[in-house]
Amino acid sequence: MVSKLLEITLSSNVDHYAVLGNPISHSLSPQIHQQFAEQTDQNLRYQALEAPLEQFQEMVEQFRLAGGKGLNITVPFKQQAWKLTEQRSEFAERAGSVNTLSFDQNNRIIGDNTDGCGMVRDILVNLQQTIKGKRILLLGAGGAVRGVVDPLFKEQPASCVIANRTISRAEQLVEVFSDLGDVSATEFSDLAGREFDLIINGTSASLQGELPPLPKNILAEAGVCYDMMYSKAPTKFVEWGREQEAVLAVDGLGMLIEQAAESFHIWRDVRPLTDSVIKSFRS
Ligand code: ATR
Fold first, then answer.
1. Which end of the chain, N or C, is less packed with Cβ atoms under 10 Å?
2. Long-range pairs for 66-69: beta carbons < 8 A, 24 or more residues apart
3. What residue ranges do the domains of the chain occupy?
4. Domain 116-255 is in which class?
5. What topology does CATH give the domain 2-113?
6. What is the pLDDT of residues 83-139, one digit of tens each?
């Protein structure tokens, strides 16, 4: 199976999957999926492919035509991917972004967003924290945050405040998700004097080694800080959480592995165990 345009060549004796992004060289997804495949005895190959910024759609098409079974989509293509899908899961529909594409027997492109479920599962199952009744502060209003609001509300938090540098983007999200419960928008400068039980960083500030301008004393006693980004060294936000005496301040490695497990489940109809995979990456 060969496609000429982007020279994707897939052997036919194994099912092929890939993650598409730009840049992509840092991606841990191939290693994660390889561990899942070994653990569940699935015959598949998973690679990381860099899509040229202007050729995302062609790349998806070529991968599909070459016989690929499914794709993960990462920065900066999740919203574009949503537009390519002919059918979407409930969470993906509203998030306006997808991170998982499956190609069905009729060659239709099905879109899912497993980021939010992955994060919620990491918080509830791996980290043994509760979301129900909690006052949540979500930092950021980009694609990362869009993907988690719906799954978070399925766990019945008391409220969710979305703080963003550009307030209009936070307000747009409130419009999209306001029917779910108590959702509101704010600027960082208006956070002083308020208190939250769970603060989730969905900005891309950590990628640049930066921290959103957060006032002190907004984390409640026994509060939790969760960074959707991950890195080998603690992110600035994780460091901030520790300074605020969070009972737990963690990065998003668990989320990354859980969203991958959710995608794997969609594609292969078998759910890999994530415990050992998270441990192996942490070490
Ligand atoms: P993604 O899809 O990864 O969420 P995005 O849509 O570009 O990427 O969104 C990035 C988010 O991080 C935005 O909320 C952005 O704030 P603006 O909407 O004001 O641009 C936020 N962000 C990025 N760098 C930041 C920084 N240094 N401090 C605070 N917020 C930052």
1. C
2. 66/1, 66/2, 66/3, 66/8, 66/9, 66/10, 66/16, 67/1, 67/10, 67/12, 67/16, 68/8, 68/10, 68/16, 68/17, 68/18, 68/103, 69/15, 69/16, 69/17, 69/44, 69/102, 69/103, 69/267
3. 2-113, 116-255
4. alpha beta
5. Rossmann fold (3.40.50)
6. 999 999 999 999 999 999 999 888 899 999 999 999 999 999 999 999 999 999 999
